[in-house]
Task: structure prediction
Amino acid sequence: VQLQASGGGLVQAGGSLRLSCAASGRTFSTYVMGWFRQTPGKEREFVAAIGRYGSRTYYGDSVKGRFTISRDNIKNTVSLQMNSVSPEDSAVYYCAAGNVPRGEYYYWGQGTQVTVSS
Result:
């Protein structure tokens, strides 16, 4: 599966941003989908994941209560709604496809930059 992330940009602290990830192929619904983020010099951080049918979601502690992950298995998309953002949320965000929410992910998108100004 090929993944294409979009929706990044510049947003003020306290604002909102919605990231989207479009997947190619007919097997999208067979994958757990996740969002990760990374800043220079830091390890990649788990942000959120969603089960194959969208009924179960998982969040990293730093975004719990502020971010919401969702998916549309008809449109082959997964989204990340980011609310109440802070400068600490600035990073390159990647979508990924795998089999286990907090396990290994096999396919990765190219990343989209999110910058939060204070």
